[in-house]
Amino acid sequence: MRLALLLAAACLGLTGCATIKSWFAPPPPPAQAEQPDEPPQLTTRPQAPAAPRTAPPAPTVPRPPAPTVPRPSAPTVPRPPAPAAPPPAPDASPPVLSPVLSAVDEQRLRAETQQRIDGAEQRLRQVDPAKLTSGQQDSLRTVQSFLDKAREAVQAQDIRRAHTLADKAFLLADELTQRPR
């Protein structure tokens, strides 16, 4: 539907091309009234300035403004995406943006995080991977991934992230030990 409207507007706009050119052409200089008693001069010799005439100037007719016809807008073409920035160096860790914890709160959170990591590892030792279904094996790999990332976060001093990851690992490991096999 939109395409049909654009085509119709383009066709209507193209039918008046002769008048569109006049939109962009500068207006012609105002017409000067010709004097019937003077013949046109064909020479290029310098002439003395003529005496001012007392004849009234010819009235100028104001030119009506050109009618405004809405032009169809050209369809926008999406720009290609900007080239991606190179990935950061693997040694550089991104800055951690988290609220500052007091020393007491940080110690408490660090201790809880270590308890969750130890508890998740203890539960994983109770699980026999050979007896797990494919869905349970996926959960086991997820728990191991969460534990690895939690240890990395502890080393990077990102205690809040480490606590969140350790808590997720603990809860998933607890579900794996509770499910009937």
Q: Could you characterize what this model shows?
A:
- By secondary structure, the chain is an all-alpha fold.
- It has a domain at 103-178.
- Helices cover 49% and strands 0% of the residues.
- It has 5 helices and no strands.
- It has helices at 2-15, 17-24, 103-126, 134-155, 159-178.
- Helix 3 runs antiparallel to helix 4 (134-155), helix 3 packs parallel to helix 5 (159-178) and helix 4 runs antiparallel to helix 5.
- The radius of gyration is 42 Å and the shape is elongated.
- The model has no long low-confidence stretch (mean pLDDT 75).
Strand content: under 5%
State the major sheet. none
Class per helix and strand makeup: mainly alpha
Radius of gyration: 42 Å
- Low-pLDDT parts are none
Please tell me what the overall shape is: elongated
Number of helical regions: 5
Order of helices and strands: HHHHH
Give the terminus-to-terminus CA distance: 59 Å
Helix content: 40-55%
Q: Total strand count, please?
A: 0
Mean pLDDT: 75
